[in-house]
Amino acid sequence: EKRASRWARMLQAHDGAVAGATHREIANTIFGAEVVRSEWRGASDHLRLKVQRLLREARRLAGGGYRALLRGEDAQS
Predict the structure, then answer these.
(1) What is the pLDDT along the chain (77 residues), one digit of tens a residue?
(2) Which of 4, 36, 38, 51 has its C-alpha lying 20 to 30 A from 44's C-alpha?
(3) What is the 3-state secondary structure (H, E, C) of 30-67?
(4) Are 49 and 31 in contact (CB under 8 A)?
(5) Distance (Å, whole) CA 35 – CA 66
């Protein structure tokens, strides 16, 4: 499954958020401290937005969207 690595990152992000981690701490775990150190407050917000998207999608799946995945449907609906 091509999306498996993204699902794993979503699960990591969700687990971190539930445990009380900040978005930056979640990014450190998923993308590495060096990447976060150089890009977190860079010219672009892409890394922070990436963490926000992972969390938003993880919450949607945890809220019942996973059922669409189990049925083989596109879970974006």
Answers:
(1) 788 899 999 999 999 999 999 999 999 999 999 999 999 988 889 999 999 999 999 999 988 888 887 887 765 54
(2) 4
(3) HHCHHHHHHHCCCCCCHHHHHHHHHHHHHHHHHHHHHH
(4) no
(5) 30
